[in-house]
Each structure stands twice: as C-alpha cells, then as structure tokens.
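Quick one: structure for this chain?
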Amino acid sequence: MTLRISTLLCGLLLATAAITASAQEVSARAQALHQQALVLDTHLDTPANFPRPGWDISDDHSHDGSYSQVDLPRMRKGGLDGGFWVIYTGQGARDAEGNRKARDHGLLRMTQIHEMLAAHPDTFELALSADDAERIAGQGKRVVFISMENASPLASDPSLLSAYHALGLRMLGITHVLNNDFGDSSTDKKGPEWNGLSPAGKALVAQANRLGIVLDGSHASDQVVEQLIALSKTPIVLSHTSAKDVFGHPRNIDDALLRKLAASGGVIHVNAYGGYLIDIPANPEREQALQALADQYPDESQLSEADIAAILKARQRIDQQYPARQASFDDYMRHLLHILKVAGPEHVGIGADWDGGGGVLGLANVGDLPRITQALLDAGYSDAEIKGIWGGNLLRVLRAVQAGAEPAGQSS
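Got it. Here's what it folds into:
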C-alpha cells in the first residue's frame, strides 16, 4: 500500500467531521508557553504532497481533510516550528528491480524536499544541527530536518547513506510495515526473518553512528529496537510510536522496552495514528469498500484537488454506511501521559504521523497542537518539561549523536 492508501484505509474524515478545538479550550497561559517552546514534530509525511499538481506548502489545504494536515498557514496557527520531513518509501520487491525503484524513489523525494526549500527560502530552511533549528526558528522561519522512513532506498547500495547525509539526512528509520534487507518489522505477517537486525542492518547502524545520523526504531520489531539500543554508540529515538501497555498493537512499545530506551538516553515521540491508539474492530465490508476506492486512485503523486474532493465525499458515504470507531484526543493523551509516567518527561516527544495517517478527533491537523500543551499543563507538567517534550529532548539526542560522529573525512 502507498502512504495515501494507508491514510484512506484509516478512514478518518478529520477535517470535515472532527470535533476540533475551539480557541477557548486553550488558555492564554498555554498559548504563551506554546509560543515560547521550540515546537518540533519528528514525523511529517508532508513531502508526499509535494509532487501533487498545484499543491504548495504556503497555501491552506484544510479542504483536503486528512490528505493534507501540514502547511504554512496551519503551522503558524498551531505554533509548529518544523521537524523531521520524511523520505518515505513503501516496501516493494526485494530484488534488483525493486531495489532500483526504491533507490530512485528515495532520491526523487529528497530532490522534492530541496525543491520546496528552494521555492520558499524566506519561510523554510534546511536544518543540519540542533543549533540550526534554534537559529531558524528564532528568525521566524520553519525548520526542515530530513529523515528516512524505511531504509529500502539503501538496499542496492548501503554506502548511499553518506550521499544522503551530505544532502541533509539526519534521521534513519530501519523498516516500515514489512521486513526488509536491514531488519524485521513489527507488523510483517510472515514473522521475523532476521530475529532483529540483519548483518547489513548492523553495518548500517555503525555507518549511521559514524556519520552522526539519529537512528529511528519506529515500525521495527522489538528485537530490532533492543539491538539498536545495544549496538548504537549514541541514543536512538522512536519517531512515531505509542504505548503497548495502553493498547496492545504490535506496532507499539511495551513498558519494559520503554524503560530500556529511556535508560539509554533515547526519546520516544508519541504517535497519533488512530489504529495504534485504540481497538478498532475489523469490518470486512468497510475495508473492501475503502480498498475499492483506493484502487481508483493508484498514484498518490497525481491526486488533484478534484480527486481529493471526490475521495473525501466517497469516504463520507462509506463512513455513513459502515460506521467505525474513531480515536479521540483523550485516547491520544492516554498514551502520551502513560509514556510520560513510565519513561519520564526527559525522554518523550511528539511525532503524530501527520500526512501519514495520523490525527484523531480533536487533534485533526497541526493547527490543533496547542491543545497538547494545555493538556500537559493540566496534568501538572512544568514549563521546562513541556518545552523539552516539544523539542528540547529531541535536540539533546541530536547533539549527542552528532558529537559522537567521526570528524568529516574520516568516516567510511
């Protein structure tokens, strides 16, 4: 499935049917704190929208519903300073042709991110370090770190990681929903193939450490996460993951492993993908209808505004015919507050999976982010802890990872 089909199958009409936050729900104190914080999200799938005909990051795309949750107007509204913008590659065939397609897709998506940056130099800027992020946000621009979700673009030639690093890559996720040449996924129905990382995956960990690239264990199996923690010379992150002890989905992380992550100095960024937050009972008729709709639009990069409007209308009919339970803001906060209690606020951040299926009722797009700050204040967290959750903890890990890198010219 492509990213957009995944979003469609999630079936959340967040912009057209969501209970969105009113200004009165966020106090002046919370708004002020939110504006003071460096607000970063570690998993923005928004680059998938960059190739769409006529789509521009500077326009308000609220009418696109859950197909577009991040743009400059809503970043300003929600106080989102930026974050990690994702090079996502769906896992294809693991043969020479499949690896070539993955390689080309990854390089094309990297190019599209740079094209966006070139088109908007006054409002967006590439960040290569924690200091860059603070400087860029201080200038009133939006921070663009670059990450990779699923290392399959490297399968044909893992040494390409150094080229990606030179182009700005600062975070690397090992797998997606299927096993790949580097390690096991948490959700591959075939089960584990490598019992964690493959030999190539272990070599990739060492290469990322040498280059100063943050390692990301989201989507990977528990064994992969444990091995990342053990093998990496610097802390790792989970860029968009929730709590297995709140809802036992294999994509989530349990408390024991969460404590190991925190003890190693790592940070978990809490996901807002509804299917990982609550139990949504299977509805074969609904899933069949959604899949049939998805099959009508096989190329996500060519979805026009008219296509999106037609899809949203069709999804609304499907929702009416086959209603499904939907996750709420309270469900999201249940995961976030549990993780904060187990890991400690110094080891928690936000990675809501925007434009990749994330978003819940009451937290429909990045314009709603101040609600999280209000909820954290209500739960008793201090201003300093909340600022850490929004960006400080992430930048601490980035600084540690880059401090552990080999000097330029010495990595191999």
